[in-house]
Fold this protein.
Amino acid sequence: MAYCDRCGSYIPDGWTSCPACGYDPEHEAAQQQAAQAQAHREEQEKYAREEAEKRRAQRQAYDKVWAENEQRRRKEEEEYRRRQQEQEERSRKERERHSREQSDNGVNVTVDPDGTKNVRVGDRVHIVVSPDGSKKVRVGDKERYYDRSDIEAGLSKAGKKVKEYITSDTVNKAGASAEKAVGKLIPILSYIGPLCFIPLILGKDHFTGFHARQGLRLFIWGAILQAVGGFFGISWAVGIFQVLMAIIGIKNVVNDEEKKLPYIGG
């Protein structure tokens, strides 16, 4: 025994719908499921349309970017080719200008297939350099041949002249003077502040040792006087005194003199 959920009427056994109001719960449930399925399909179709539209928009954006990049690439290639053509044109013009300058100066160089070089200077000078190193020089109507022996003889003669010059008194005196000047650099360091320790270590002769000891005394006394002068506010005077003593010491080095510094030389 069943009763209608809508009107409460009695529903005979075996019936699915109400005889009074016609309400059929199974039919209503089926219709509701069908409506839900239809709504679900419509939602899926809407989602599919939106996704398709989104993909289409993305593809259009990608195509646009690709087209812009492709257009930029083509412009860059065209610009590169244009610059190459301009560079080749400039190089061609430079070669032509150089060739014209050679022609204007009357100098023309050609190389034969066998490696022989022909150098023409104007209409009167013609130099032929063979692959073996021999030369033929024509000046006007006169010709002269130079082979490797001539070249070696010329080099030997030039070497002898260089050797004679190197062993000459002038070069020896200049070398001695330069060596002497360089030898005075280390003693001069004795009077440049803490650099006085360099000649003390490197000095091997009596002259360098003497000035190294004088410079060390100047450095020590300068440090002491600077401390005292800083207390009394006269550091500037001590600095002037140090500079004057250093100048006197360097002057003694230049004059090859072993004189003690005034006041502090001991």
Q: What stands out?
A: Strands lie at 2-3, 10-11, 107-111, 117-121, 125-129, 135-139, 142-146. The two ends are 143 Å apart (CA to CA). The first strand starts at residue 2 and ends at 3. The helical segments are 25-105, 148-166, 169-183, 185-188, 197-202, 206-232, 235-254.
